[in-house]
Amino acid sequence: MTNLAISLLIGVLTGAGVYLVLRAQTFPVVLGLTLMSYGVNLFLFTMGRLHTAAPAVVGATGQSADALPQALVLTAIVIAFAMTAFVIVLALKARAALGNDHVDGTHIAQANRVIDRHEEPRA
Amino acid sequence: MKAIELLAVVVLLPFLAAPLAAWSARYNRFAAAWVAGGATLLALALFVWICFVQGGAMPVATHHAWIESIGLSFGFRLDGLSLLFTGLILVIGLLIVIYARYYLSPGDSMGRFFAYMMMFMGSMLGVVLSENMINLVIFWELTSLASFLLISYWQHRKEARYGARLALAITGSGGLALLGGVLILGHIVGSYELTDVLASGELIKNHELYAPALILILLGVFTKSAQFPFHFWLPNAMAAPTPVSAYLHSATMVKAGIFLLARFFPALAGTEMWVIIVSTAGLITFMLGAYTALFRHDLKGLLAYSTISHLGLITLLFGFGTPLAAVAGIFHIINHATFKASLFMVAGIVDHETGTRDMRRLGGLIKYMPHTAALGMIAAMAMAGVPLFNGFLSKEMFFTESVRVAGDLGPVWLLPILVSLGGLLSVAYSLRFVHDTFFGKPDGDLPKKPHEPPGMMKRPVDLLVVLCLAVGILPALVVGPLLHVAVTGVLQDTPPDYSLALWHGFNLPLLMSAVALVGGLLIYLFRAPIFRWHAHSLAHLDARVVYNRLMELLMRGGAGVTAMVDNGRLGRIVIMTLVFSLLAGLVGYFHAAGLPGVQAAMNRGGVEDSGDWVTWLGILLIIVATVVTVVGHRQRLFALITMSVVGLGVAMIFARFSAPDLAMTQLSVEVVTMILLLLALFYLPQQSRKLSSPGRRWRDAGIATLVGGGIATLTYAIISRPFESISGYFMDHAVPGGGGHNVVNVILVDFRGYDTFGEITVLALAALGIFAMLHDLSLPSSRRDPFGRAWSDDPHPLMLRTFAQIILPLTLMFGIYVFLRGHNEPGGGFIAGLIVASALVAQYMAHGIETTENKLHLPIHGILGAGLLIALITGLVSMVFGVPFLTSAFTHLDLPVIGDIEIASAIAFDLGVFLVVVGSTMLILLNLGRLTDHAVEHPDYASIEASPASTQGRGGRDA
Questions:
Q1: pTM, to two decimals
Q2: Nearest to A67 among B609, B744, B825 (CB)
Q3: What are phi and psi of B721, to 5 degrees?
Q4: Is B672 on the interface with A (CB under 8 A)?
Q5: Do B825 and A68 touch (CB under 8 A)?
Q6: Which pLDDT belongs to residue B939?
Q7: Is B452 on the interface with A (CB under 8 A)?
Q8: Which of B253, B669, B680, B848 is surrounded by the most beta carbons within 10 Å?
Q9: Residues 6+ apart with CB under 8 A from B5
């Protein structure tokens, strides 16, 4: 059951990440990337299988969890933070340069044209 | 050291001279020429000495292991063939250096020219002296590059750039084909060493991969040596300065292809396939080049096509595949190099002294420059194959061989007639070269008043022309020994009997020579109608048209594919990637049935899977939070808060499933990520607009569901199967090998320390990149929240300030504790770094950036740099002790009171990690926070994106 639940969670995190990454403005895309990296980190982590009360410390308990994926994920978490920071600053830079927060880096006029095309009919 | 080991020095000397020449030219223009000449002379002297010491003991090879796993070694080889070519490259190279010293005008960069020239010389020496075939291909490619640089030497000229690109495209793709061929050859023989390959001729020719190997190698040969249908790059390469044309594009580089034919002669030649392909290409090139040369008006154009024609002649000889034909081919290589280099230099002198190379304008120069005219005439007679000149001898041998093999290649009369026709044309164009330039009358005024060039410009030509005559009159004496050695090198066997005499009696080849001479003279005399006919019917044919069309197609195709995949929209690119991965995953899924597949594993269930309801509830909570984040993502602050719930949940999962290190890392990263995103949100719209249509949103949701479902299935399929962990090694060796009990930390700072070093470097780079991007950035921001309320006017509330002050020492202490215990208990540099960083950032938030900076004086860049440096030095120290980078050592200390403690050198590395993490995090957050001081209120911005009052205007598109 736990395996199923965690698989489902990883799927939901990835799916949510994908949906947000496909949005057209920068902030949701960054949120999406963060959600996706949660999913990916959990995915890597579960590759070592789920163990309870068995930290990878020699002599702590009788058995121990798989240390290798943990080590991989630890650095992945930190790097993901650096990447998020880099992307969000890029987004700020683009906003300063172009005057809008569209992901495709188009100028405001062009972005508005894009917006117009996708505009929903007013209710 | 044995003399033969110094062959490497001969090859490397020009490469060393190249930067020296470029550098010395800054102080004196002519120093570059002296350096180049000196290096060439030195290499030549060294080479002669090596040959002298070596005596008759050839072939001999040296061998130094390089990358053995791919069969690459750094090895050189001396045998007759490489001796001949090395001699040609160095001797003609020296003459060309002297000539170029006077040829280049004051406006031309001497340093650049001679540096390129030396690079070429070294590469070419590498080609002819290589023992290892991969080594040979590397040098082969270097010659293409050097040729590219030299052709485009006058970069401001359009035709120079075009010619250089053309040459690189053709010879470069040929080089790729050659690499493929060589790899196949190495696969067949089981070795890339020429010694082994040349001894395995029978094995290679009977192997099923012989055909592809031969075709690929021949592609390399034909492109380099300008054989039909790849010949058209050579005339365009004439945009290079004339010394380059003389050296690369007639005497040496274009011979590299032919060198390869000779080199692989014992291994590849003699089969029906070889004879058909090589001799057909050679014959067509020989005829076509000779014909086209006649109609060129440019001196260098004529010489270029004549070079193509002669290269074809030599290729044809090798194509016959008989040992005697190989003798003739080698002999003609020597002769062609001498007379063609002379002719190019003469053309250069004419161009230099008159300002034009157009034969329609030139004429009567014999009056002004008799010496040069004499040189030109002798060399041209050698080219035409007039008796007493060297070209006559090898052409006689060529005719003899053609007659000998004619019966095997079509009707017995066909080949002799064709080659006589080619010879006849070459007599005609040689005559034109001489007559149109030095006799008759010039057409109107020449750009310059012609006179003899500086003496030193003629000396190299003098020498070569004397050689043409000496070989032509006393062949056995002058060139006999060299030819014998070279032919032995080609055949890797005793040469067949051949005669180098001038007179062989009245026979068919002599008749063919006579026909060629008389016929050529007649054609030249009656050239006017022939020229008219040519201009009408054939002049417009140009192989470049095909090339240009192909290139255009390639470019357009490339642009089309790019446009299809990347239309500049992020969404499209992401969707392409995702859909492709999905399809690949599906294909894998349905094909796995053959293996003990995924489906079976899923049905089987495999490992036991139980659990408790608290965990399930926790997971459910995270799922709900995720869904809420997505649904409510347009309210950005709200989405951020729900997302932090997800992050905390993930940390809890790590804690629940035995990963305390990960839980602590996730928790602290969560803190700094939230601060980061909140800061960023300050400059971004507080709400997302609905930019996409419902259709598009449904499509995206569909893709997201498919991807998420795929990942969930994949995860479940994997983790429900039993598996054998590979972590056993790390568990067993953590204490005895790494001196720590916390295996995760030992892996990070010891076993995989090098990876971690890479990762902290990336972290530092990202931080510095952000620092650079934020420099001088000023962002519009709003002083109001989405509902029009002003932000709080007290940015540093008393409660926060007081609390932050109390908490600082505690957090710092905790951070240090976490750091110190890291090697044995959960903790370590990464986590401690994040904790300390967030404690410090809290200070900046509570008191304001400038106030805190004035109080703390934290050199943040310094911390970052020191961290990297400490990590690096820790790694290097272990190298000082003669063990690999980052090998750790540890010892036990017995201290009073504290007792037995373990000190591992890895803790120093972990300190580096700690400092880098602190530095990077602070650098990112502080610089982003600092922007708030410069943030400007942007009226438009406020009205468009912040104020609800404008919802009727443009802001109406807001959600």
A1: 0.70
A2: B744
A3: -105, 150
A4: yes
A5: no
A6: 47
A7: no
A8: B253
A9: B62
Strand locations in B11-138, DSSP E?
60-61, 64-67, 72-74, 77-78
Question: How confident is the model at residue B936, as a pLDDT?
Answer: 58
CA distance B643 to B248: 66
Cα of first residue to Cα of last residue in chain B, in angstroms, is 82
pLDDT digits (tens, 9 = 90+) for B223-274: 999 998 888 888 888 888 988 988 988 888 889 999 999 999 999 988 889 9
pLDDT for position A112: 53
Which of A1, A10, A23, A52 to substitute to test the interface with B, most B CBs within 10 Å? A23
Q: Does B771 reach chain A within 8 Å, measured CB to CB? A: no
Instruction: List chain B residues with CB under 8 Å of A3.
Output: 607, 609, 716, 719-720
Q: Nearest C-alpha of chain B: how many angstroms from A15?
A: 4
The Cα B467–Cα B490 span in angstroms is: 23
Q: Give the torsion through C-alpha atoms of B445, B449, B451, B455, to 10 deg.
A: -130
Q: What is the pLDDT of residues B146-205, one digit of tens each?
A: 999 999 999 888 889 999 999 999 999 999 999 999 999 999 998 899 989 998 888 999
pLDDT at B2 (0 to 100): 74
Task: Tell me which of A1, A3, A64 to substitute to probe the interface with B (most B C-beta atoms closer than 10 Å).
Answer: A3
Q: Which two tokens stand for residue B291?
A: 């014909």
Q: Is the dihedral of CA B823, B826, B830, B831 positive or negative?
A: negative
Each domain of chain A, given as residue ranges in start order, spans 2-122
Q: What is the pLDDT of residue A117?
A: 47
pLDDT on residue B360: 85
3-state SS assignment for residue B636 = helix
Residue B194: count of CB within 10 angstroms of its CB: 25
User: In this structure, what token pair is assigned to residue B67?
Assistant: 């990358």
Q: What is the predicted pLDDT for the residue at B952?
A: 37
What phi and psi, each to the nearest 5 degrees, are found at residue B790? -70, 150
Q: Is B573 on the interface with A (CB under 8 A)?
A: no
What's the pLDDT score for residue B411?
81
Judged by CB atoms within 8 Å, which residues 775-804 of B form the interface with A?
A: 777-780
Interface test with B, best of A1, A63, A66, A116 (most B CBs within 10 A): A66
Q: Is B570 on the interface with A (CB under 8 A)?
A: yes
Q: What is the gyration radius of the CA atoms in chain B, in angstroms?
A: 39
CA distances to B378, B528, B731 from B710, in Å = 80, 78, 33
B635 touches chain A (CB under 8 A): no
Name, in order, each residue with C-beta under 8 angstroms of B898's C-beta and a sequence gap of 6 or more.
Answer: none
Q: Is the peptide bond before B59 cis (omega within 30 degrees of 0)?
A: yes
In which residue are the tokens 């357009």 written? B556
Please judge whether B719 and A50 are an interchain contact, meaning their C-beta atoms are less than 8 angstroms apart: yes
- Contact status, residue B288 vs residue B228, Cβ threshold 8 Å: yes
Cβ-based contacts of A80 with chain B (< 8 Å): 669
Residue B882 — left, alpha, or beta (φ > 0 → left; ψ -120 to 50 → alpha)? left
Residues of chain B with pLDDT below 50 are 594-595, 605-606, 939-959
Burial class (CB in 10 A: 0-12, 13-18, 19+), B445: exposed
CB contact under 8 Å between B607 and A49, yes or no, is: yes
Residues with Cβ within 8 Å of residue B231, at least 6 apart in sequence: B285, B288, B289, B308, B543
Q: Check residue B62 and give left, alpha or beta (phi > 0: left; psi -120 to 50: alpha).
A: beta
A2-122 topology per CATH: Helix Hairpins (1.10.287)
Q: Record the tokens describing residue B637, joined without a space.
A: 């602050």
pLDDT band of residue A80 (cuts 50, 70, 90) is very high
Contacts of B374 (CB under 8 A, 6+ apart): none
- For residue B712, give the nearest of A11, A20, A30 by CB distance: A11
The ipTM is: 0.89
Q: According to the model, what pLDDT value does residue B61 have?
A: 85
- Confidence (pLDDT) at A113: 52
